[in-house]
Write a structure and sequence with these properties.
- The complex is a heterodimer of chains A (144) and B (530).
- Chain A is α+β, with helices and mostly antiparallel strands and 144 residues long.
- Chain A has a five-stranded mixed beta sheet, with helices on one face.
- By secondary structure, chain B is α/β, with parallel strands linked by helices.
- Chain B is globular and about 80 Å long.
- The N and C termini of chain B lie far apart (81 Å).
- The chains are: A alpha+beta (144), B alpha/beta (530).
- Chains A and B meet through helix 1, helix 3, helix 4 and strand 5 of A and helix 1, strand 8, strand 12, strand 13 and strand 16 of B.
- Bound molecules: flavin mononucleotide, iron/sulfur cluster and FE2/S2 (inorganic) cluster (FES).
- The site of flavin mononucleotide (FMN) has 23 residues of chain B, from strand 9 and helix 20.
Chain lengths: 144, 530
């Protein structure tokens, strides 16, 4: 087996950053020594993939699917409700650093559309009411 | 071994977990104990039995009754009525089980008699996290057979004779691909399983990985033996957490049983499998971009030729196969090429998995022989349209696929028949649209997806996807024109002819077909000066 690739190291780096879910410039430079790539190459990789971020994000990354199967089941109204509840737009993080809202491509949950993921956990059959419950329980800290 | 009169299978997959499958399972076990049935009834976690979107699903075996959706409050009744007194709780008994089935058939056949579950034979039936249950279903016997009784070239001949074609979209003959990699000199080769599954509307590979991960590992090991590779990678999208966990467990178990690792079954053949996680980029499903991504770089497609079978991962010969393709392999080894060819049609052997969604009654993953008419899939298996609405169109093969009109619905779903209407099964996605849908709205959504997912390496796709969105927006505001339609047509043609990879070449597919088949929908959004 080969040594870990830049992408794998970036995954690991971000996974360890549980509160802010991102890859800081400092952490990226540490990879530089180990993997002896140029910083611009590392940056190029980190910015290519939507699951990686070089900007600090929230504790909970909410990724809502906007693709066709979800679109057909009113994903737009769910997305609007999320924006209202959190008071942020796509790509933004709440001021308390708890939530980041992102648009996502198909999550492979189309049979239970509309769908979203919060960190590693998928949610489906969403309605504006259901996301309200989910967000409120996360705000109250009753879920992990 | 302890004998249980009844087994209850609880589907625990990504579609039922959020609906509370874990809680239902836990409470079910408690209730069974409470009602004194703990010695007679066993509860087992499985993958999905196929129909999703309803909620938590459980199956009672050998009775062949499926309950869905099961909520916490239904549990006492199911236990006291069905399990204690033998009376089916009709209120939530699954509708597809109402037809009479002969006794003696196995559970999956009983429940889903209309399908032909070969690749999925274990899914929803065994516990995916228990290697012994897999082995009890003849698991790993196909690998044993190849290693002990066959030369690598025999395995390739068998796969070639079965006429298995790739299930990742392009339908390339698997035997030919393997033979090409086997021919290249050198002892360092790779098998890559493409589990990126990013085509919107596609979730069939997930069903295999969540429900029966060992079938995939076995298929990969056989492929490795056939082409002379000793390392396999599963490139899986980062979003598939349950699949990743179950595959990791399966790899670990297979290793400890000596079914992966050094000197498998004393044959002298070594094979390791490792998981590589993607990070959210649709283009990484394209095989050369996928290879770049495993190497750790940006997932941008490479120039072809050379093809991966000649120069792939770290410039070594590499076979890239889809999950479903590899999951077919153990079945072919077990039952032979003639058996396999008896399923499906000329040029399209075996079965095909389809993900069903949109304006239909039952959504989920099904497996049927190639050649089944699309109308049967939509009207019978998927239960027809919701609210008995009228059909407007079917999108076959994902958003880079084909737009099928109602009058084309009787077409058999196989490569040759579909080629007659310039279509194909693609990724196996079937999205059904009823006649309240506006094609312009659908195409707009698809165009935005491609704009987002274009990797930016080549101009026709990077600029083309952006321009298409801009023009479609004019129709969205009822400001379109004949001239715009011509522009869209020209742009699609340019992208089709000059894009560097298949993403850009297929991105305008649905758009182009909609301009021909649903022009009226576009014209309704023309600018009207009043
Ligand atoms: C943009 C794009 C995305 C693709 N996504 C996938 C995918 O998610 N899974 C897959 O198996 N093949 C995908 N393919 C096809 C692969 O490039 C390749 O043909 C396939 O994995 C070969 O496996 P097969 O011969 O078993 O079908 C994609 C192709 C393109 C151009
Ligand atoms: S066609 Fe699109 S996805 Fe493919 S290389 Fe060009 S820009 Fe990238
Ligand atoms: S389209 Fe939203 S999960 Fe597939």
């Amino acid at each position: 087996m080969e040594k870990k690739s830049v992408l794998e190291r970036l995954h690991e780096t971000q996974d360890k950053e549980k509160e802010k879910n991102y890859i800081s410039e400092q952490k990226a430079s540490e990879l530089l020594k180990e993997n002896s790539d140029s910083l611009s190459h590392i940056y190029g990789v980190a910015t290519f993939y939507t699951m990686l971020s070089v900007k600090p994000r929230g504790r909970y990354i909410i990724r809502i699917c906007r693709n066709l199967a979800c679109h057909l089941e009113n994903a737009d109204s769910v997305a609007e409700e999320l924006k209202n509840l959190l008071g942020i737009g796509f790509g933004e993080t709440t001021t308390d650093g708890k939530f980041t809202l992102e648009e996502s491509s198909c999550l492979g949950m189309c049979s239970v559309a509309p769908a979203m993921m919060i960190n590693d956990e998928p949610y489906g059959n969403l309605t504006p009411e259901k996301v309200k419950d989910i967000i409120e329980s996360l705000k109250a800290g009753s879920k992990k | 071994m302890k004998f249980f009169r009844t087994h209850i299978l609880v589907s625990k997959d990504s579609k039922s977990m959020f609906a509370g499958a874990e809680t239902v399972e836990k409470l079910l076990v408690e209730e069974i104990k409470k009602q004194g049935l703990g010695e007679e009834i066993k509860v087992i976690s499985t993958g999905s039995i196929g129909f999703e979107g309803t909620g938590v699903t459980i199956a009672v075996y050998p009775d062949g009754i499926v309950y869905s959706p099961v909520t916490v409050s239904d549990i006492p009744e199911i236990v006291s009525e069905h399990l204690l007194k033998g009376r089916v709780v009709k209120r939530i008994a699954f509708p597809i089980k109402t037809s009479k089935m002969p006794s003696g058939v196995t559970f999956p056949e009983k429940v889903i008699g209309i399908q032909k579950r070969i690749v999925l034979k274990n899914v929803g039936f065994i516990n995916p996290e228990n290697i012994e249950e897999y082995i009890a279903q003849d698991g790993y016997s196909a690998l044993a057979k190849s290693l002990c009784d066959m030369k690598p070239s025999d395995v390739i001949s068998l796969i070639t004779a079965s006429e298995l074609r790739g299930r990742g979209g392009a339908g390339y003959p698997t035997g030919l691909k393997w033979a090409a990699a086997a021919e290249v000199k050198g002892d360092c080769k790779y098998i890559i399983c493409n589990a990126d599954e990013g085509e919107p509307g596609t979730f069939k590979d997930r069903e295999i990985m969540e429900g029966d991960p060992h079938t995939l590992l076995e298929g990969m090991a056989i492929a490795g033996y056939a082409v002379g590779a000793s390392v396999g990678y599963i490139y899986i999208r980062g979003e598939y957490a349950i699949s990743i966990n179950r595959l990791n467990k399966a790899i670990e178990d297979a290793r400890s049983y000596g079914l992966l690792g050094k000197n498998i079954l004393g044959s002298g053949f070594d094979f390791e499998i490792e998981i590589k996680k993607g990070a959210g980029a649709y283009v990484c499903g394209e095989e050369s971009a996928l290879i770049e991504s495993i190497e750790g770089s940006r997932g941008e497609p490479r120039k072809k030729p050379p093809y991966p079978v000649v120069s792939g991962l770290w410039a070594k010969p590499t076979v890239v196969n889809n999950v479903e393709t590899l999951a077919n392999v153990p079945r072919i080894l077990e039952n032979g090429a003639e058996w396999y060819k008896s399923l499906g049609t000329e040029g399209s052997r075996g079965t095909k998995l389809f993900s069903l969604m949109g304006d239909i009654k039952w959504k989920g993953v099904i497996e049927i022989p190639f050649g089944t008419p699309l109308s049967k899939i939509v009207m019978n298996i998927a239960g027809g349209l919701k609210n008995n609405a009228k059909l407007k169109a079917v999108i076959l093969g994902g958003v880079s696929g084909y737009l099928i009109k109602p009058e084309e619905l009787d077409i058999p779903v196989d490569f040759n028949s579909l080629a007659r209407i310039e279509a194909g099964p693609g990724s196996g996605s079937i999205i059904v649209l009823d006649d309240s849908r506006d094609i312009v709205d659908i195409v707009k959504n698809i165009a935005e997806f491609f704009k987002h997912e274009s990797c930016g390496k080549c101009t026709p796709c990077r600029i083309g996807t952006d321009q298409i969105c801009e023009i479609i927006d004019r129709f969205f505001y009822d400001e379109g024109s004949e001239d715009d339609l011509n522009k869209l047509m020209r742009l699609s043609e340019t992208m089709f002819q000059t894009s560097f990879c298949a993403l850009g070449q297929t991105a305008p597919n649905i758009l182009q077909q909609s301009l021909k088949k649903f022009r009226g929908d576009w014209e309704r959004h023309f600018f009207k000066s009043e």
